[in-house]
Amino acid sequence: MEKITDAAKDRARRMKWWHEARFGMFVHWGLYAQLGRHEWAMNRERIPVAEYERLAATWKPKPRPAREWARLAKQAGMKYMVMTTKHHEGFCLWDTKMTDYNAAKCGPGRDLVAEYVEACREFGLRIGFYYSLMDWHHPDGARCAKDEKARRRFLDYTQGLVRELVTNYGKIDILWYDVAWPLSSPELWESAKMNAMVRRIQPDIIINNRSLLEEDFGTPEEHINPEQAGRAWEACMTFNGSWGWQPAPPEDWHSVRSVLGMLRQVTAEGGNLLLNIGPHPDGSVPKEAVERLTAVGKWTAKNGEALYGKVERLAGRFEWMPTGQFTLKGKTAYYWCTRWPGTELTLGGIKGKLRAASLLADGRPVAFTQEKDRVILRGLPKNSPDKIAGVTVLKLEFATPPRQVLGAGCVVI
Ligand code: GLC
C-alpha cells in the first residue's frame, strides 16, 4: 500500500493536464548521437571512459535545434516534451556546477537544457526532464554499490544535479527518472528524500516510477499495456528501435498508421504515448520522423476529439472488430475504422441506443439503422474518406454509455 503522502493527496489536481494531453515527444540527444549506434554504445561496445569523453569536445550542434523539435511536436498534436538532460553516458546537457563534463563547458559551449526549455515555452508545450540515475562516467557511478563513502558522494552528486534541474529553469512539469542501477532500493538511492526536495521546489511536478518509488505514473516501455489498479501510465516508444540517433531503413520506422494505432490503444485505456525522436548530432530531426509526425499532425488536427481530454478506460467494454476499434468519452464512442468496408459498416452486439452518427473529421452526418443490437451505418463513401492514413473516425453518439457484447456464438433462429 502506498503511504498517503501530500504528493498522493493532490495527484488528481497535479495530473489533470497530463491525463488530457495524451501525446508527448521524447527526445534522446547526447554525445552518443555522434556515434549513431544507439545510446547504449558506450556500454555495448565497452568504450573506455577516456575514449568516450573525447566525444564531448567534438560535439558541435547547430544553433537552437530544440525549436525544430518543439515546432514539430506542436504540429504533430503533442502537448508535452521530455528531453534527456543526462543519459547513462553521464554527460550533462546543461550548465551544471557539479561537473565540467557538461554542454556549456565542452564542445557545444552552451546550455542545451536552457534552449530546450525556452523552445517548449515558445510553442506552448509542457516541459519534462529525463534524468538517468545510472551514470557510466562518474567514478562512483558503479562503485557506490560496494563502497559506502562512494555511495554518499554519488548521492550528493545526484541530488545536486537534480536540484539544479528543478531550480534553474522555472516551472518544470515532469521529472522522468531512468535506470536505478546499481543501487537496489529506494532507501539506498534516498529517493523519497530526493523527490520530496523536488516537490518542495516544484509543487506541481509529476514524477515517474523509475526512482524505485511508484510516484505518479507507470512507464511501460516499447509495449502498450495499461498499469493495474487504475494507476496512471504512459507508454514510451522508440520510433525505430533505438532511442538515440541510429540510421534505420524506412520500414523499421513506425508508419503513420502505426503511430495512430498506438494513439488509439493508449486512449482506449486512459494512458499516454511518449513517442521518441533521436535527433542527429547537429540536432536536426531525422527526415523519417519529420514526414511521419507531419502527417500524424494533419490527422490529429481533424480527429483530436477522439483522443484528447477525459476518456473512459474501455477495460473490455468493446470487443474486437475486423474493421476497426473504439475509444470512448462518456456516451460518445469513436470508431477508428482502419479497414474501410465500403458503403456500409455494420457493428454487432451494440448495447445502447444510437442517437447520431457522423464522420468526425468533417462532421458529415451518417445515416444509420439500429435493429436490436445491430447498428448499420449506411450511405458511406466507397473508399475511406481519410486520405492521410486511411484511418477514418466515426463519431457515434448514444443515449447512454454504450457497450458491445458479442461472444463467440451466433444468433439462434
Ligand atoms: C531504457 C534504456 C534507455 C532509454 C529508456 C527510455 O531504460 O536504458 O536507453 O533511455 O529506456 O525509456
What's the quick description here?
This protein has helices at residues 6-9, 11-21, 41-44, 49-53, 55-58, 66-76, 112-122, 140-143, 148-167, 186-189, 191-201, 256-268, 287-303, and strands at 23-27, 80-86, 126-132, 174-178, 206-207, 234-237, 272-277, 324-329, 332-337, 345-347, 350-351, 354-359, 367-371, 374-378, 392-398, 403-404.
Walk me through the structure:
With 413 residues, the chain is an alpha/beta fold. Helices cover 29% and strands 19% of the residues. A seven-stranded parallel beta sheet has the order 5-4-3-2-1-7-6, sandwiched between helices. Strand 13 (367-371) and strand 14 (374-378) form a beta hairpin. Helix 6 (66-76) packs parallel to helix 7, helix 6 runs parallel beside helix 13 (287-303) and helix 9 (148-167) runs parallel beside helix 11 (191-201). It starts with 5 loop residues before the first helix and ends in a 9-residue tail after the last strand. The mean pLDDT is 97.
